[in-house]
């Protein structure tokens, strides 16, 4: 991150033009194109909370019948094992973001609760 706030369009969740900070870059396939990624403060907050939810989720992964942890992301052809063992200690921390709520059923086997009003995405 450059740490400099600029006025421009945020590339993330809000769809606003506002104060943004360059947080990295993205490269796409053929033809190869590069672009800087800019995020506003609100979207940076969501991004940082999503990273925290991710860290919590990967610390709480279920295991398959062989005791191997099942990652949050699997190849489409591999699919997810039907029989999983979830953490019995209930130590998985509740998600705070939309991404976290998508990972929640993968790590707990139960559907997420509805987000509280104003909880952000
Ligand atoms: Zn934004």
Strand content is 15-25%
How many β-strand runs?
A: 3
Helix content: 10-25%
- Overall shape: elongated
| Order of strands across the main sheet | 1-2-3
Rounded mean pLDDT is 89
Question: What count of helical segments does DSSP give?
Answer: 2
Terminal CA distance: 23 Å
Order of helices and strands: EEEHH
Query: Are any ligands bound, and if so which?
Result: zinc ion
Outline the low-pLDDT stretches. Answer: none
Task: Summarize the structure in words.
With 121 residues, the chain is of the alpha+beta class. 24% of the residues lie in helices and 21% in strands. It is built from two helices and three strands. A three-stranded antiparallel sheet has the order 1-2-3. The mean pLDDT is 89. Zinc ion is lined by residues 10, 12-14, 16, 39-40, 42-43.
Tags for this entry?
2 helices; 3-stranded antiparallel beta sheet; alpha+beta; binds zinc ion; elongated
Furnish the topology, listing elements before pairings:
Elements: E1 5-9, E2 17-28, E3 33-40, H1 41-58, H2 98-108
The protein binds zinc ion (ZN).
Short description:
The chain has 121 residues and is α+β, with helices and mostly antiparallel strands.
